[in-house]
Structure formats: C-alpha cells, structure tokens
C-alpha cells in the first residue's frame, strides 16, 4: 500500500510499504478515506521528536471498515468509522476511569502511558496517512457514523482529534455559559477551542494569534481576533474584561511558542495565559509540551523545563488542566452535534489533497503559508 513515510527532518515521501493487516482477533482493518495533517505531525516532521525514520504519520483518521477480526462483534464491514487518535484497550486502570489518553496496555514502554497512530513515543503503531490502517481493539476504538458519513466527512474527520481536543481545553478551563474566554493560538486546535466555547455559550471569546488567515476564521465563527504582533494581548484582554482578565483561558500553541519575530520562547503563551485570566480563573493547556526537547534553543528548554510564572499563578488561585485529550470522552457527543446540524468544524479546512501531494502539503503547512489552515489527505481518493 502507499503511505507517507518520514525520511528525516523536513522530509517525507509517499512510498510503497507492507499492507496493514489484521494481526490480532480484536483488530479492525480500515480503508482510509480521510487523514488530516496535524500541528503535532509538524513537531515530528521538523525532527523535534524521537519519531523514527521509515514510519508513517497520521493520527486523525476516518474510513471504511473492510475486514474485522474474529473477536470483533459490534463493528461491521462496510461501516464508516472515525478513529480517536488515542489507541486504548478499554480495560486498564486508566481506561476504566475514562483516561484513554493514558492507556497502560497499548503503550509498550512500562514507564510511559498512552498510545496513538503514527506518533513519537506513543507505541509502534503506523499512522493513517496510508491506504489502510490497522485499528487495535476495533469495537472499543471505532466510532461508527451514520448515513451522512460521506456527505459530512470533512466534519467527522475533525472528531478524530482537533474538535475533541479543543473541546477538552474548554472543559479543563471550566467554560460555562456567559464566560469570557481567551484562547492563545488560532491553529486548528485553537480554533476548535474557540468554536467549542462558542457552542457552550461563552459570552465573549478572544483568540490570540498573528496569522491573518487564522484570525479571519476566528472572526468568522464569532470570536474576537487579537493580533499579538500589533497589540499586547494581555492588555487587550484586560480592557475587554473591565480590568479583571478573562474567566477562562486555553493554551493551544505548545512548546514551540515564539514571538512575532520568530524567536522561540516556550513560556510565552503560558505566562500570558496566567496574566490575562482573572483570579480563581481556570486554564486548559492542550498545546504540546515535552519532557525533553534536544532541538530547543536554550538549556532549560532542552530539558523540557519552562520558566513558568508559578508565583502569579498561585497568587491568583487559578487552576490548570493539561495533557492530551481523551477523545472517547467527547467523540460521541461531538459526532451527534455534527449529525444534528449544530456544529460544522470543517470550516477550517483549506486543502483536500490526494496522498501523493503529502510532501508539498507538509512543506506548505509547516511554513505556515498563508491560506494553509488545515489539510485533509484522501488516500483512497474519496
Ligand atoms: Zn492531531
Ligand atoms: Zn487501557
């Protein structure tokens, strides 16, 4: 089968690799019709992780079931399914408590938790930027779609990661109807966090970024765009909230945060978040931070350490949630919002491309070329 293969920093190619197949009785085999390129693919693409050369990216996947193992009882051949980027067993201590993002049995490294398709440090699983994908524990990990699956495919594929991840940021921040919310980062996840806050009935949503195409999308869904290359976002948010700061804040940038002139500063958005959220406000951090970052510009950051303004955070009595999203906690509900016509997260898709165009798509998305807000690859030419 054809798949996107990681060759080394800033280099992917589309190559023939061994076909994905059923390996265990609980597996499901999916013909991938849509697989997104994600911001976390870019961390790996740039060589800023331990992702091994020769492996395939792709953790935001949707497709058609073409074969099921002998122990699969719910999922049927021919069904359209969207797959949480987390691969989870459903029976370990963490899965039982709903933390499928930190599954203990799908992660082979005993000191780690959590597994995903085509992801650094998250197990050996191949990604879905390929014609076929093996889904372990298919009954648990497949979310089945209804008759509108093809018509709304671009909406449903966002349920694999970014829509639930954005929603999770607002859950951890504690967004409640009427709240004022500030969101750092208007990449796909930041836009999904803004969209989620709006769906939840937030009174005012402010989105901080500096890319005009992204800010335009934020405005289009009813958020206030804040260009941090032109204004101080902390002052802006305070002005908008009678000096108090926003009720809730979400960090959707991560460790490669940088100032408008391009200097990396991993604490930039975190400290601005603390500063622009009010006393006893809630923070949700879904931007990626890592325990080590050998490619970082300074010593502290190389060890995964961030000069976090803990004093201010403690003084303000804020609370913070962090980490990857347990997609299964939300995906059914978000699917049903889409099915019911209450959400249409595909508004951020700028490009739909065949698998062959992946190298060019990675280059443009990684260079933040204007207008490349979200790329969906269609391996099966759907
Ligand atoms: Zn993703
Ligand atoms: Zn588990």
TrEMBL record:
Domain Alcohol dehydrogenase-like C-terminal intervals: 188-257
UniProt cross-references to InterPro entries, sorted A to Z: ADH-like_C, ADH-like_N, GroES-like_sf, NAD(P)-bd_dom_sf
Enzyme class, spelled out: oxidoreductase
Cofactor(s), names only, from the UniProt record: Zn(2+)
GO molecular function, one term: formaldehyde dehydrogenase (NAD+) activity
Keyword Metal-binding: yes
EC number: 1.2.1.46
Keyword hit for Transport: no
Alphabetic keyword roster: Metal-binding, NAD, Oxidoreductase, Zinc
Pfam family, one: ADH_N
Location of the Alcohol dehydrogenase-like N-terminal domain: 25-137
Family named by the database record: Belongs to the zinc-containing alcohol dehydrogenase family.
PANTHER family: GLUTATHIONE-INDEPENDENT FORMALDEHYDE DEHYDROGENASE, ZINC-TYPE ALCOHOL DEHYDROGENASE-LIKE
Protein name per its UniProtKB record: Glutathione-independent formaldehyde dehydrogenase
Source organism per UniProt: Paenarthrobacter aurescens (strain TC1)
């Amino acid at each position: 089968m054809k798949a996107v293969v990681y060759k080394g920093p800033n280099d992917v190619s589309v190559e023939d690799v061994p076909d994905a197949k059923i390996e265990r009785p609980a597996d499901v085999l999916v013909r991938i019709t849509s697989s997104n390129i994600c911001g976390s693919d870019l961390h790996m693409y740039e060589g800023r992780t331990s992702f091994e050369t020769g492996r395939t990216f792709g953790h935001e996947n949707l497709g058609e079931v073409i074969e099921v193992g002998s122990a699969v009882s719910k999922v049927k051949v021919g069904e359209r399914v969207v797959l949480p980027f987390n691969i989870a067993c459903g029976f370990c201590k963490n899965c039982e408590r709903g933390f499928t993002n930190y599954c203990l049995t799908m992660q082979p490294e005993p000191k780690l938790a959590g597994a995903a398709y085509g992801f650094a440090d998250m197990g050996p699983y191949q990604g879905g930027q390929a014609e076929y994908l093996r889904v372990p524990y298919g009954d648990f990990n497949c979310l089945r779609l209804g008759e509108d699956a093809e018509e709304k495919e671009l909406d449903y594929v966002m349920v694999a990661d970014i829509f639930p991840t954005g929603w999770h940021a607002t859950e951890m921040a504690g967004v409640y109807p009427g709240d004022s919310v500030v969101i750092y980062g208007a990449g796909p996840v930041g836009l999904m966090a803004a969209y989620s806050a709006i769906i939840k009935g937030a009174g005012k949503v402010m989105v901080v970024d500096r890319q005009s195409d992204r800010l335009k999308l934020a405005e289009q869904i009813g958020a206030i765009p804040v260009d941090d290359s032109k204004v101080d976002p902390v002052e802006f948010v305070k002005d908008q909230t009678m000096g108090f700061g926003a009720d809730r804040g979400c960090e959707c940038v991560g460790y490669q945060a940088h100032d408008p002139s391009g200097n990396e500063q991993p604490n930039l958005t975190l400290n601005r978040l603390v500063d622009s959220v009010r006393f006893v406000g809630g923070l949700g951090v879904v931007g990626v931070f890592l325990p080590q970052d050998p490619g970082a510009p300074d010593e502290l950051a190389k060890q995964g350490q961030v000069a976090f303004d803990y004093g201010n955070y403690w003084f303000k009595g804020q609370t913070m949630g962090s980490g990857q999203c347990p997609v299964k906690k939300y995906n059914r509900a978000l699917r049903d919002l889409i099915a019911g016509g209450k959400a249409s997260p595909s508004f951020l898709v700028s490009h739909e491309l065949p698998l062959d165009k992946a190298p060019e798509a990675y280059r443009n998305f990684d260079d933040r070329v204007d207008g490349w807000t979200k790329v969906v690859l269609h391996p099966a030419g759907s």
